[in-house]
Amino acid sequence: MAPFVRGRSTPDAGAVLSINGVWVQELERNVGPPILATLRRAYAAALGQQPPDGFDESVYVTRYLGASINRMSNVPDEVYRLISNTIADGVEAGESITDIAARVDQVLEVTGTDRWTNRSVVVARTEVGAAVNAGTLAAAGQRQRDTGRPMVKTWIATTHGPSADTTRPAHLLADGQTVPITQPFMVGGEPLQFPGDPSGSAGNVIQCRCNLSTRAADER
């Protein structure tokens, strides 16, 4: 905000959108690697062996990471809306440029508000759960290719414990739904490959605590 204050001009919310490309680059550089590491660990845990060479560059993994990063790429738009409303409130109240800039600083402050702390918790919970399920599904696909035995997957909703009360009704209805691993689940009228699937709508996947289990179709 310093340049606006020095120039005695109203802060420009549009400036936030100018860093959108940088934001996506930072997501890919800082967020992509830990998501990939989580996916790899889930794969190894499900199959009992490390992912094969070329796993990280496979179509499945690159598409998954792209969709996951894309899920977080709209933050500049969100910040733009927050700042636009904040500036409008300040102008309507007849505040000085300095006071309006201070308002905007409060919106952007990471450590002085719960907004960004809470947002980071939501993102972490969503992305970790989704990556674990994506890795589990990838391992099932590898097992099907290695053994020639058809694999199936089952949606497991959170029905016990302190989180059970927040499980979405559509996810409770999906509990126990079993389909071939290449076929999506139908959850709330939407096709999802696994709980937390980043291709799903925000209302169906954000903070989802459901899990995925896999087995050979002839196993019981």
Describe the fold and architecture.
The structure is a single chain. This protein has helices at 2-6, 14-17, 20-47, 59-72, 75-92, 97-108, 114-147, 169-174, 202-205, and strands at residues 151-156, 178-180, 185-187, 190-192, 211-216. The chain has 220 residues and is mainly alpha-helical. It is elongated, with a radius of gyration of 22 Å. The strands form two sheets. It has a three-stranded antiparallel β-sheet, with helices on one face. A two-stranded antiparallel sheet has the order 3-4.
Shape: elongated
Strand fraction equals 5-15%
Radius of gyration: 22 Å
Spans of at least 5 consecutive residues with low confidence: none
Mean pLDDT: 92
Largest sheet: 3 strands, antiparallel
Helix content: 55-70%
Number of strands: 5
User: Oligomerization state of this entry?
Assistant: single chain
Number of helical segments? 9
Topology order in helix (H) and strand (E) letters: HHHHHHHEHEEEHE
Class of secondary structure makeup: mainly alpha
Reconstruct the topology from this structure.
Layout: H1 2-6, H2 14-17, H3 20-47, H4 59-72, H5 75-92, H6 97-108, H7 114-147, E1 151-156, H8 169-174, E2 178-180, E3 185-187, E4 190-192, H9 202-205, E5 211-216
Antiparallel strand pairs: 1-2, 1-5, 3-4
Helix pairs in contact: 3-4, 3-7, 4-7, 5-6
Explain briefly what this protein structure is.
With 220 residues, the chain is mainly alpha-helical.
Please tag this protein with its features.
about 220 residues, 3-stranded antiparallel sheet, elongated
